């Protein structure tokens, strides 16, 4: 009887050791698979928007491809919580998450009113509950295209809409853009990857409001556009299929 018990105990011990060795082996293999999947460590040479190179833009796009990003109820969410999970620098991870956080604020400013400090000019076009200077994102974007100053664009909008100006409606975007850029080329989507040369992008933020920005770079692999929000001096990401229209200067 004692021999049987000893035999059972020995067998159980062997099975448990084998089981734990398998777990350890799988853990190492899983870690190696993750490392081999993202062998290249990603970081930007600069985080100053005006000094970013083609390489920085491409690196940003590669980082987006590694992250699990979904959109629920109109807002972006990133599954990862650290850059190390996808072998990118923590600075780059924070830069990306900050960008999506700001994009979410633009899409749903009222949702974030009690969660995020308000920026004086960080609001959407045509939202009367926001500071008055938030209504000039179109003027900022027209200036960003390079053919007109912000003051001239703002003066033109004031002359049309008067003192009650609260933002350019989507139905008037064509006439406003073509006033300053008569040879502008309009498209409802971005089809070719690469630099967008500060083309004016308009995207809806609700049924009645929208936001105008300037496209910098379209990463066709990730499906994201990086754009300049000159009104707030930020580079932010947005899915290409979220835009309503894009106006190329020439």
Describe the structure.
- This protein is α+β, with helices and mostly antiparallel strands.
- It has two domains: 104 residues, no CATH class; 126 residues, Cathepsin B, Chain A (Alpha-Beta Complex), CATH 3.90.70.
- The protein has six helices and eight strands, in the order ααββααααββββββ.
- The strands form two sheets. It has a six-stranded antiparallel β-sheet. It has a two-stranded antiparallel sheet with strand order 1-2.
- Helix 4 packs across helix 5.
- 32% of the residues are buried.
- About 19% of the residues have low confidence.
Describe what is shown at a glance.
38% of the residues lie in helices and 19% in strands. The chain has helices spanning 2-37, 54-66, 90-107, 137-144, 150-161, 173-180, and strands at 69-72, 75-78, 185-187, 194-204, 210-219, 224-229, 234-239, 245-248.
Describe the secondary structure blueprint for this structure.
Elements: H1 2-37, H2 54-66, E1 69-72, E2 75-78, H3 90-107, H4 137-144, H5 150-161, H6 173-180, E3 185-187, E4 194-204, E5 210-219, E6 224-229, E7 234-239, E8 245-248
Antiparallel strand pairs: 1-2, 3-8, 4-5, 4-8, 5-6, 6-7
Helix pairs in contact: 4-5
Average pLDDT taken over every residue: 80
Strand fraction equals 15-25%
Number of domains: 2
CATH class of the largest domain: Alpha Beta
Q: Output the helix-strand order.
A: HHEEHHHHEEEEEE
Count of runs of 4 or more consecutive helical residues: 6
Largest sheet: 6 strands, antiparallel
Overall shape: it is elongated
- Determine the CATH topology of the largest domain: Cathepsin B, Chain A
